Amino acid sequence: MGKVTGFLEIDRQDRRYAPASDRIRHFHEFVIPLSEEATRDQAARCMNCGIPFCHSGCPVNNQIPDWNDLVYKEEWREALRNLHSTNNFPEFTGRVCPAPCEAACTLNLTDTPVTIKTIECAIVDRGWQEGWIVPEPASTRTGKSVGIIGAGPAGLACAQQLARAGHEVHVYERWGKAGGLLRYGIPDFKMEKHLIDRRVAQMEAEGVVFHYNCEVGVSVPPSQLMGRHHALVLAGGAEKSRDLPIPGRDLAGIHFAMDFLPQQNRRVSKEPMPTNSAPPILAGGKHVVVIGGGDTGSDCIGTSVRQGALSVVQLEIMPRPPEKENKLLTWPNWPLKLRTSSSHEEGAEREFSVMTTKFTGSKNGQVEKLHCVRLDDRMQPIAGSEFELRADLVLLAMGFVSPLHEGLLEWLGVAIDKRGNVQADTNDYRASIDKVFACGDMRRGQSLVVWAIREGRQCAHSVDQFLMGTTTLPR
Ligand code: FAD
Asked: Would you call 272 exposed, middle or buried from its count of C-beta atoms within 10 A (0-12, 13-18, 19+)?
């Protein structure tokens, strides 16, 4: 532990955002990093508790007190080595993770947790700047080959671990680039995509072979991969969006968030739209209503505001979480308090305990109105509370039900669990078919980037054990 009295002497200080009026003019990241000195001070606040709850609060079990101490002592390169020992991609989690580690921090008892996410991001960003992050190819080859379906964070983490263990690794990805929802769902203002390209280049130099525009079960038969590889990992995510089957759902102007967000991400990256893409969905000059109060909903708000929406309203069916008279009302208090994303500060109105009962539109079939009702504490409609909302564009961001079953999963015939995900437990990540494994959202259902990385790493451990009879890969 660096500074024994650090938490008593130093106030919590976190990264700031560029002013909303500036940042809504572009799609770039807008977080202003702390100075090196301020980061070091924040690391000094870590108490190195006897039982570091942050450790277990973090799904990848980052050794947070250890690297806080190393940052305090200005041993940044060692801090990076430690961070990478549990997390392949800290620059992703350092930007988009809701930081359950901070919720678990002992200092969160007074709403002032250590700024763990900020310190994590500073360590890895510095590592890239200094040129400390280089390919780490395996020194020996095993002669075994693994096919991984899906290049989201789960597939990428699994691929990197297995390549470093000496296996030949092929990643099959439906889209033109790697990253999954990190690239096509999460907007650039939360995480710029060159960060993914940099990791992919590192992985290619470590021997991972990427096959893009390759949808297994559609353009490539799974039988071909089953014959080619000694093990197959299913990391295809959970893509089936939750729908709202109410009257008027088929009016023009009502879209799933995941039809809207990927288009904008492709525009920013100047990546061509896929041939089967919906016509352009744009919020500019429109009254937008976002249905759904999670990360996807927030991303729809930020994107709509940047596209020039006239107004944005976000509807959430759940009650408003409790608020507290405290300046730190944001992520660290998660999951108990109201979550406020940067997008909410950019000009959206939020409504809680609201259910949409129908959409109505113009004669030519364009949506014009949402018909809503307020709900009581038992989530029952309150008589007389009905109201209408104007909308030219409605974005459905109510989460994801499960992976798509058509194509790959049906062809393979893998068992599906009660929630509709690929059945495989976390002891060995093995699906119901010999030599097939599953990880990430495809196995656990809609989740977080940090859980995808954890599952990819743990799955790699199991695949290596299966192929070699033993493994030195961490779980
Ligand atoms: P995915 O990222 O979904 O990747 C799966 C990949 O598999 C995709 O690239 C897909 O094209 C490919 N694939 C699927 N089927 C096939 C096939 N048959 N053949 C070939 N390739 C295939 N999490 C956070 O932690 N923080 C956030 O701020 C956050 N924001 C989010 C915002 C949005 C809009 C969305 C939608 C999600 C967000 N999440 C966030 C959740 C997070 O992105 C996911 O939990 C995570 O990406 C899951 O990783 P994965 O690798 O399991 O799947």
From this structure: exposed
Percent of the residues in the chain that have a pLDDT greater than 70, as a whole number? 96
Give the pLDDT confidence of 120-151 residue by residue, as tens digits.
999 999 999 999 999 999 999 999 999 999 99
Q: What is the 153 CA–ligand 1 centroid distance (Å)?
A: 7
Atom number, ligand 1, closest to the C-alpha of residue 451: 45
- Span of 259-263, 320-324, 398-402, 466-470 with lowest mean pLDDT: 320-324
Which region among 55-69, 116-130, 338-352 has the lowest average model confidence (pLDDT)? 338-352
Nearest CA to ligand 1 atom 39: 448
**Any ligand 1 atom below 6 A from CB of 172:** yes
Distance 89 CA to ligand 1 centre (A): 15
Query: What is the predicted pLDDT for the residue at 328?
Result: 45
Atom of ligand 1 minimally distant from the CA of 455:
52
Burial of 334 (0-12, 13-18, 19+ CB in 10 A): middle
Tallying the residues shown for the chain, one arrives at 475
Whose alpha carbon is nearest atom 9 of ligand 1?
Answer: 180
Ligand 1 neighbour 153 (Cβ under 6 A) = yes
What pLDDT shows up at residue 331? 42
Structural domains of the chain in order of their starting residue, each with its CATH number: 6-130 (1.10.1060.10), 145-239+401-468 (3.50.50.60), 243-398 (3.50.50.60)
Coil, strand or helix at 130: helix
For residues 198, 200, 206, 210, the Cα torsion angle rounded to the nearest 10 degrees is: -160
Map tokens 């893998």 to a residue: 414
**How far is Cα of residue 192 from the mean position of the Cα atoms in its chain?**
13
Could you tell me the two tokens for 18? Answer: 């560029």
Residue nearest to atom 47 of ligand 1 (CA): 181
Please say if the pLDDT value at position 320 is more than 90: no
The pLDDT, as a whole number, for residue 1 is 63
Which ipTM was obtained for this model? 0.99
Geometric angle at alpha carbon 402, from 396 and 408, rounded to 5°: 120
pLDDT of residue 75: 98
Is residue 76 within 8 Å of residue 41, measured between CB atoms? no
